[in-house]
């Protein structure tokens, strides 16, 4: 569904990504793990058009369509093609109500009935959001804001969803709920997911495939189950010996 | 008491004009975080657009007045969008200081172009609405132009509130103002929202320009400077970036100024606005309704 070849991204004179190549098959959950500054967020930002890559290509194939090059297509045009990105730090519109946030998620949808249906679907996934519908988003807890950020992304009816650190700064109990929801979104609705996560254990548990990034390069890749057994991964990212 | 109420009415009608201009400053600041110093000259162009379009509609009637008002608002909305497109958008990725200096440049350009095209000598602004004075109980007078100022301002404020709070584009404006990156990730084309904001703010400035000219009757290409600066003070007073704050700041400043003008310190009327600016920056830098923002890196 998404094919990244030799992606290179620079911040000024610093190269954040060197020749990163990733393949995300349709219907899968793929995870990027790695420490701080490994280039995980940069990868997502380059895919969603927030950053201009210095080299390489990104090809995206929506439903059975031919793969289309989306390198450097601006972010707001990718939403229409079915890509959604839940950014690091959630970035909910804290000055808007929960309902308005979700409506903004369906910004490109003109059909009111479809928006209503999508809203019901999101409330089905996250009932907590329905309880908080009229509340200003800035007053939600961290976990609720994460639900809202994911819900907002789902409102655009994505085919491909990128999640950046969904567990960051959230109570452990809610992290579990959110990861269950991620699996549900993938299994029940066939949405392909690219997950960036510090919590490698959790991420590999729900993923099909994983990539390990270190200082802007892919150093390891493989099936999630195999990566969990890999001694190098275990000692560096899973806290094992 | 009568004099107090009379001054209050005078103050509110002056403040309404400041409020209309201040809204443009505050909305643009809301989405782009910079002060569009050319805004006061859009106000001036609004007055001239009214001046020239009223020649085609010579007799004063409510319908003609409203037509002139609409023409000026549309002309300025287009001007505002063009200014943003040509002068500010190419600098979007640059530092705010660069854009700020460019705004001063655009302001000077409009002022000098105005002198070149319209002439530097003041022109008499024609009467576009029928003039009548109402005498209220207690001997207060309410001129029809004051009523028009207040009615037009209220209609503008209510419509603006509706657009910003209830429509999709208004919600998108608030979303872009809070976080442009998140806005683009949900599919909002931030360029369109920014153009819309400039158009809306400039249309309100044009309405302010017409109302101001109706009350002061003389217009010239530098007429925007002082009211523009005061409206900027009003926007800061209310909390820059905060829409209700700009309206409140404008009205307050108009009332304060009118009362000072009616006292024995009237010489210092203009100084008062800037004293207010200094005081607000010293004691409540976020403004009356604003919230302090933590600068994010």
Whole-angstrom Rg of chain B? 19 Å
Give the helices and strands of chain A as they follow along the chain.
EEEHEEHEHHHHEHEHEEHH
**Largest β-sheet summary of chain B:** 2 strands, antiparallel
The protein's oligomeric status is: heterodimer
| Secondary structure: number of strands of chain B | 4
Structural class of chain B: mainly alpha
Tally of helical segments of chain A: 10
Strand content of chain A: 25-35%
Uncertain stretches of 5 or more adjacent residues of chain A: none
Alpha carbon gap, first and last residue of chain A: 36 Å
Distance between the termini of chain B: 53 Å
The CATH topology of chain B corresponds to ABC transporter involved in vitamin B12 uptake, BtuC
Which percent bin holds the helix content of chain A?
25-40%
Structural class of chain A: alpha/beta
Overall mean pLDDT of chain B: 92
List keywords for this structure.
heterodimer; A: 241 residues; alpha/beta; Rossmann fold; 6-stranded mixed sheet; 4-stranded antiparallel sheet; 10 helices; 37% helix; 25% strand; globular; B: 297 residues; mainly alpha; ABC transporter involved in vitamin B12 uptake, BtuC; two-stranded antiparallel sheet; 11 helices; 3% strand
Written overview of the protein:
The complex is a heterodimer of chains A (241) and B (297). With 241 residues, chain A is an alpha/beta fold. Chain A has a domain at 2-90 and 160-237: 3-Layer(aba) Sandwich (Rossmann fold). Helix content of chain A is 37%, strand content 25%. Chain A contains ten helices and ten strands. Chain A has helices spanning 40-47, 75-78, 98-105, 112-125, 127-131, 142-154, 172-189, 200-206, 224-229, 231-237, and strands spanning 2-11, 14-24, 29-33, 55-60, 68-69, 83-86, 160-164, 192-196, 209-214, 217-223. In chain A, the strands form two sheets. In chain A, strands 6-7-8-3-9-10 form a six-stranded mixed sheet, sandwiched between helices. A four-stranded antiparallel sheet of chain A has the order 2-1-4-5, with helices on one face. In chain A, helix 3 (98-105) packs parallel to helix 6 (142-154). The longest helix of chain A is centred in the C-terminal third of the chain and has 18 residues, at 172-189. In chain B, the strands form two sheets. A two-stranded antiparallel sheet of chain B has the order 1-4. In chain B, strands 2-3 form a two-stranded antiparallel ribbon. With 297 residues, chain B is mainly alpha-helical. The model of chain B has no long low-confidence stretch (mean pLDDT 92). Chain B has one domain (2-283): Orthogonal Bundle (ABC transporter involved in vitamin B12 uptake, BtuC), CATH 1.10.3470. Chain A binds chain B through residues 48, 50, 74-76, 79-80, 84-85, 87, 91-96, 100, 103-105, 107-108, 152-153, 155-156, and chain B through 168, 171-172, 174-175, 177-179, 181-190.
């Amino acid at each position: 569904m998404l094919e990244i070849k030799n992606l290179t991204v620079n911040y000024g004179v610093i190269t954040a990504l060197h020749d990163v190549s990733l393949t995300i098959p349709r219907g899968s959950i793929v995870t990027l793990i790695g420490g701080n500054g490994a280039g995980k967020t940069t990868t997502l930002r380059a895919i969603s058009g927030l950053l201009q890559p210095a080299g390489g290509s990104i090809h995206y194939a929506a439903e059975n369509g031919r793969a289309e090059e989306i390198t450097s297509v601006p972010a707001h045009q990718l939403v229409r093609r079915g890509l959604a990105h839940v950014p690091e730090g959630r970035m909910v519109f804290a000055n808007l109500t929960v309902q308005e946030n979700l409506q903004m998620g369906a910004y490109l949808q003109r059909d009111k009935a479809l928006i209503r249906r999508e809203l019901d679907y999101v409330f089905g996934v996250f009932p907590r959001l329905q309880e908080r519908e009229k509340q200003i988003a800035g007053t939600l807890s961290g976990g609720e804001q994460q639900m809202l950020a994911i819900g907002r992304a789902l409102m655009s009816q994505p085919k491909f969803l990128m999640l950046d650190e969904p567990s960051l700064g959230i109570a452990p109990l809610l992290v579990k709920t959110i990861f269950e929801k991620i699996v549900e979104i993938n299994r029940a609705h066939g949405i392909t997911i690219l997950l960036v996560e510090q919590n490698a254990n959790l991420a590999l548990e729900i993923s099909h495939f994983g990539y390990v990034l270190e200082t802007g390069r892919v150093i390891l890749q493989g099936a999630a189950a195999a990566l969990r057994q890999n001694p190098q991964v275990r000692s560096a990212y899973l806290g094992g010996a | 008491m009568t004099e107090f109420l009379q001054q209050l009415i005078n103050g509110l009608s002056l403040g309404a004009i400041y409020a209309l201009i201040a809204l443009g400053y505050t909305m643009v600041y809301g989405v782009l975080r910079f002060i569009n110093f050319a805004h006061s000259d859009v106000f001036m162009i609004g007055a001239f657009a009214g001046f020239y379009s009223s020649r085609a509609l010579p007799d004063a009637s409510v319908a003609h007045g409203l037509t002139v008002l609409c023409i000026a608002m549309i002309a300025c909305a287009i001007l505002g969008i063009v200014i943003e497109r040509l002068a500010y958008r190419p600098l979007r990725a640059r530092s705010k200081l660069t854009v700020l200096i460019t705004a001063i440049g655009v302001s000077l350009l409009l002022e000098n172009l105005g002198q070149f095209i319209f002439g530097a000598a003041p022109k008499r602004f024609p009467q576009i609405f029928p003039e009548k004075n109402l005498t209220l109980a207690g001997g207060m007078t309410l001129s029809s132009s004051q009523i028009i100022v207040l009615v037009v301002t209220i209609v503008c404020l209510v419509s603006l509130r509706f657009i910003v709070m209830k429509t999709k584009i208004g919600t998108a404006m608030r979303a872009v103002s809070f976080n442009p990156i998140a806005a683009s990730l949900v599919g909002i084309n931030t360029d369109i929202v920014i153009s819309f904001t400039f158009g809306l703010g400039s249309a309100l400035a044009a309405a302010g320009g017409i109302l101001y000219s109706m009350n002061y009757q003389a217009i010239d290409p530098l007429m925007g400077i002082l009211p523009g600066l005061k409206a900027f003070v009003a926007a800061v007073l209310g909390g820059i970036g905060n829409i209700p704050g700009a309206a409140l700041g404008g009205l307050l400043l108009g009332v304060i100024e009118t009362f000072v003008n009616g006292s024995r310190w009237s010489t210092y009327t203009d100084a008062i606005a800037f004293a207010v600016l200094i005081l607000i920056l010293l004691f409540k830098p976020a403004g009356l309704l604003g919230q302090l923002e933590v600068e994010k890196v």
